[in-house]
TrEMBL record:
<dbReference type="GO" id="GO:0047369">
    <property type="term" value="F:succinate-hydroxymethylglutarate CoA-transferase activity"/>
</dbReference>
<dbReference type="GO" id="GO:0005739">
    <property type="term" value="C:mitochondrion"/>
</dbReference>
<comment type="similarity">
    <text>Belongs to the CoA-transferase III family.</text>
</comment>
<dbReference type="InterPro" id="IPR050483">
    <property type="entry name" value="CoA-transferase_III_domain"/>
</dbReference>
<protein>
    <recommendedName>
        <fullName>Succinyl-CoA:glutarate CoA-transferase</fullName>
        <ecNumber>2.8.3.13</ecNumber>
    </recommendedName>
</protein>
<dbReference type="Pfam" id="PF02515">
    <property type="entry name" value="CoA_transf_3"/>
</dbReference>
<keyword id="KW-0496">Mitochondrion</keyword>
<dbReference type="InterPro" id="IPR023606">
    <property type="entry name" value="CoA-Trfase_III_dom_1_sf"/>
</dbReference>
<comment type="function">
    <text>Coenzyme A (CoA) transferase that reversibly catalyzes the transfer of a CoA moiety from a dicarboxyl-CoA to a dicarboxylate in a metabolite recycling process. Displays preference for succinyl-CoA and glutarate-CoA as dicarboxyl-CoA donors and glutarate, succinate, adipate/hexanedioate, itaconate and 3-hydroxy-3-methylglutarate as dicarboxylate acceptors. Acts on intermediates or end products of lysine and tryptophan degradation pathway, in particular catalyzes succinyl-CoA-dependent reesterification of free glutarate into glutaryl-CoA to prevent renal excretion of glutarate.</text>
</comment>
<feature type="region of interest" description="Disordered">
    <location>
        <begin position="29"/>
        <end position="50"/>
    </location>
</feature>
<dbReference type="InterPro" id="IPR044855">
    <property type="entry name" value="CoA-Trfase_III_dom3_sf"/>
</dbReference>
<dbReference type="InterPro" id="IPR003673">
    <property type="entry name" value="CoA-Trfase_fam_III"/>
</dbReference>
<keyword id="KW-0808">Transferase</keyword>
<feature type="compositionally biased region" description="Low complexity">
    <location>
        <begin position="32"/>
        <end position="46"/>
    </location>
</feature>
<keyword id="KW-0809">Transit peptide</keyword>
<keyword id="KW-0007">Acetylation</keyword>
Amino acid sequence: MLSQRLRLGRGLVNYGASGRQSLRNFAAAAGDDNNNNNNNNKSSNDSVDERHPLQGIRILDLTRIIAGPYCTMVLADLGAEVIKVERPHYGDEARKWGPPFLEHSQDAAYFLAPNRNKRSVCIDLKRGTKMLHKLAEMSDVLVENYVPGTLDRYGLGYEQLRKVNPKLIYCSLTGYGSVGPYAKRPGYDVIASSVGGLLHITGERDGPPSKVGVAVTDISTGLYAHGAILAALYQRTRTQRGQKIDVDLLSTCCSLLINVGSNYLNAGTEAKRWGTAHSSIVPYQAFKAKDGYLTLGAGSDAQFKDLCRRLQVEHLSEDPKFKTNKDRVQNREEIVSILEKILSKDTAHNWMKVFEGAPFPVGPVNNIGQVFEDEHIQAIGLVKTLPHPKDDFVKVVGPPVVFSEARNDARTAPPMRGQHTDEVLGELLGYGREEIAKLREDDIIE
């Protein structure tokens, strides 16, 4: 069936250069549609059309917290139907990770970030196995992030479900993978980032290890998983078989070490913390101004020369101690000290005017309010407003990827716990009202 969907995808309407909106205008227009949608109970799937690359793909989502939900959200943005399975009366743990909380539904704002475009059903994993098997049988993908072996005890492991649906793509996101001495350990972002060395290289040069401000290892793991799922779906068009995918936080974190890892593996060079600075490029860091900080980088000697010209210290670019990047790295402390004294004399706002049109990258260190008030962020319509069944509306950061032909959009607000249980059991599994009422009375569903 997927091969047919792919062929349909290739036959999308060609809007042509004259009739095509700019990419971001199209995204903004899609956001306007969301903003004007007054049907708070509308299913994410109702507004998916042939322009969505994953139209017709159904994903059974047994994940919680960040890595798994982020993965399935990205796939949902592309048009996949995502059924989020949650624990009755508790739900995804991230719903309680606050404050802040929504006023009426009492879901944490944290939960909103990776859960748009999904339907929520609450089914007890231990006693609702029959229902989950039926959902797996009619799904293309199952995504889960339990400690290896947990779902096998409930009859929901890969080897069990592949018998139910041989074409099922089963993606496991774990802390350390399904094999190895750490396989049974629970995994959280900051722990995997500690074991994987990311905390060791993050923070001020003379300070303690520090974590990144968001769960970057979780998010990256989710992105790896989303790409792997797409590859498996494509391979299935040739083999007609599903497969198991293992993605883990620790391996992801090690992959994020890039040049730092390569330096150790190939030259035996142990890494250290640099704050905002770069071990191999100078200047490349944040500098304090009168009203805050700005970050700039001169990745080439030509860029450094232009920086000196704009700062009216042209002689520095001809000084033998600073003429090449190698020279500047060797004399890092001296050149950074000089630039710190110059840049501290004016505001970041005024320096940005001086650097307008510069060939080197430069930008202010914004707080989060300034990020979303930034004229560029507002101009591209990145933030989307979505109607919510209890809290009027919520705001989310929309997809950062825009296609010229395909749709990739935020359509519906993150669901309330169990919001679609009756809908899914009735429409997909054919359960009647009395059957659903009995399941709810027995506390198997919510």
